[in-house]
From TrEMBL:
<dbReference type="InterPro" id="IPR050769">
    <property type="entry name" value="NAT_camello-type"/>
</dbReference>
<protein>
    <submittedName>
        <fullName>GNAT family N-acetyltransferase</fullName>
    </submittedName>
</protein>
<feature type="domain" description="N-acetyltransferase">
    <location>
        <begin position="1"/>
        <end position="167"/>
    </location>
</feature>
<dbReference type="InterPro" id="IPR016181">
    <property type="entry name" value="Acyl_CoA_acyltransferase"/>
</dbReference>
<dbReference type="Pfam" id="PF00583">
    <property type="entry name" value="Acetyltransf_1"/>
</dbReference>
<keyword id="KW-0808">Transferase</keyword>
<dbReference type="GO" id="GO:0008080">
    <property type="term" value="F:N-acetyltransferase activity"/>
</dbReference>
<dbReference type="InterPro" id="IPR000182">
    <property type="entry name" value="GNAT_dom"/>
</dbReference>
Length: 171
């Protein structure tokens, strides 16, 4: 598996993954994403800010994640110090054909690498309360449940927050 920053040339593959993932999410009762979000404009901004990462398997884009320090104001609702800078994972998606092969874990490991490079000790992520797969994945990778929040831009949905603390050596 190869991880790298995404480029605009990756947009067709990224959007293809999202188009394949959204119906599966919704079929499972997870309405975190819709046909219009995340969209090309959102991913273009991520690319311009150099915060979008892709994972390649066998030369094909297999997964994507925005790794940022952006924390929604509602993060103050969670059981963590919202004022502390953190690497936050947004828009994590893995092609359904390769789910279960460690793509999401590799992208989350990249978040840890960035945290170490940037001198940050906290990793954060939120997921829809109906996303059972991520609720199993995050604790397996050392994230602790940090509470439930709502997000203004996704009314009516509940989100679970997870945080992973790194020691002073960045591990």
């Amino acid at each position: 598996m190869y991880l790298r920053r995404a480029t605009t040339a990756d947009l067709p593959a990224i959007l293809r993954i999202v188009r394949r993932v959204v119906p599966l999410m919704q079929a499972a009762g997870n309405f975190q994403w819709e046909a219009d979000y995340p969209n090309e404009a959102v991913f273009r901004v991520d690319i311009e800010r150099e915060q979008l990462w892709v994972a390649e398997l066998e030369g094909q884009v297999a997964g994507v994640a925005a790794l940022t320090t952006d924390q929604d104001p509602e993060y103050a609702q969670a059981d963590w110090d919202a004022a502390e800078p953190a690497v936050v994972t947004h828009r994590l998606a893995v092609d359904p054909e390769v789910q279960g092969r460690g793509v999401a874990a590799a992208l989350l490991q990249q978040a840890e690498q960035l945290a170490a490079e940037w001198g940050l000790r906290s990793l954060r992520v939120n997921t829809n309360s109906e996303n059972k797969a991520t609720q199993q994945l995050f604790p397996k990778l050392g994230y602790r449940f940090a509470g439930e929040i709502t997000l203004a831009f996704r009314p009516g949905l509940r989100f679970y927050c997870y945080e992973k603390r790194l020691d002073a050596a960045g591990r």
